[in-house]
Fold ABC transporter ATP-binding protein.
Amino acid sequence: MAVRSIGKRFRGLRAVSDVTFDVPAGAIHALIGPNGAGKTTCFNMIAGVFAPDSGTIALDDRPIAGLRPDQICASGIGRTFQIVKPFMGLTVEDNVTIGALARTRHVPEAREAARRLLRDLGLDDRRAKLAANLTLPDRKRLEVARALATGPRLLLLDEVMAGLRPTETDQMVAFLKDLNARTGITILLIEHVMRAVMALSQHIVVLHHGEKIAEGTPHDVTRDPAVLEVYLGQEDASSPPRSGGGGRRPEGEAT
Ligand SMILES: Nc1ncnc2c1ncn2[C@@H]1O[C@H](COP(=O)(O)OP(=O)(O)OP(=O)(O)O)[C@@H](O)[C@H]1O
């Protein structure tokens, strides 16, 4: 995916300004930055929640900026939401089956795909439960399963590690690494849990106040003076960062 100079304003506020980055096919990249840096706004522009005010986004050389979310899903981009929003009154299996129906109209086929994903994500024994009755870690897994069920080539993960214990984070990291190795799926993740970012990403883009302030390997980015300034600088700020947000060293442990 090629993101070129995208920008988005909300009334007077520049949420994202002139942001450019690439995510090569098959890669795992991360988008990090303190709370309010513009990460989710970038995801929303990529996923078609709203069009960028400026700039272009292309998947495999095909322009996608400004398409509707369903068109973007059909073009091969799946996403999770920071605030998980499954259909609470439906079972886990039905939730994933609905995702799979984006790919096939054949319900038994969609159900079979859903069951396979639930097995892969360790949710098999919960497939008959209502989504509303899941624990948070299981809801996160369900969210990933729903996104994957749409059959994406590019998976956008918005804070899927938030609220997970370190062992649960490690399980999710292992699952995503294996998925990427097995299927070649491209992954772009927004994540505050640095343990996961470091373990997963080959390349990191750092946003601050809507602008890209650094990008590079995890090794380089965690030593970048501008990045250290943003993260460490906030520790002295009068308002502490929200949970897991900026204010921690980017190479910190799970938050
Ligand atoms: N729909 C919207 N309407 C108005 N302002 C918005 C909207 N979405 C985001 N913003 C504002 O844009 C800025 C960037 O927000 P965004 O959610 O993209 O940041 P983020 O980096 O994802 O933060 P977080 O880590 O807290 O999720 C913030 O100041 C936010 O308040």
